What we know:
Blueprint: H1 18-33, H2 48-58, E1 70-75, H3 78-99, H4 102-109, H5 119-122, E2 125-132, E3 134-137, E4 140-143, H6 147-164, E5 168-169, H7 179-183, E6 190-199, H8 215-218
Helix pairs in contact: 2-6
This protein binds 3-iodo-tyrosine.
Amino acid sequence: xxxPKPEFLPLDFQVVGKSEQKSRADEFFELLNRRRTVxxxxxxxxxxxxxxxxxxxxxxxxxxxxxQPWRFVVVKDPEIKHKIRAAAEKExxxxxxxxxxxxxxxxxAVLGTDENKPFLEIAPYLIVVFRITSIVEDGETEPTYYxxxxxxIAVGLLLAALHNxxxxxLTHTPSPMKFLQEILGRPKNEVPFVIIPVGYxxxxxxxxxxxxxxxxxxxxxx
Length: 222
Ligand code: IYR
């Protein structure tokens, strides 16, 4: 079979003036700098349209060979959320009581996390992100390329999109996460990547007192 020929279209590039570049840079930083990982949720409803738009935004991420190796399963059914919570808490119990190293547990101590995950039932939506590891085309299996990086970027855009509309999120990774494949009936080539509870914080939501690194500590110009 011959290779497909490249076909090109002109780029529709929006030029941003200098002073607007500066103000947009500041505004975007300030917006995203207000994002915090939230673990205390209210059950206040969220319009599904906002979730759809955010997932569509995540789907604009670049991906290896443009294979878009992601699947976003949006869970709102209380029974499914209950199953996910029960399975996650079972794994988390094992993790907190023997599977995680002392060093790891010390790192988590400041976050105040433990095996209890009520947010998995309270948050109105859980977005379960799967990474597609391979596809079948013309009866042949082919891996996806750079799928970890691609899905990681898509999740970053998803968190930003949800934050932009005033919704709180948590990147939750119970380990191992295989139970998600079973509960949500996903095929073997879809590997769980992260669970993202989405909703509004509870009235009394609390946050760990942790800080972001300074620019000097994360960036070097050479
Ligand atoms: N998955 C566990 C533990 C945990 C691990 C990391 I790395 C965190 O940044 C936070 C928690 C949990 O969700 O509690």
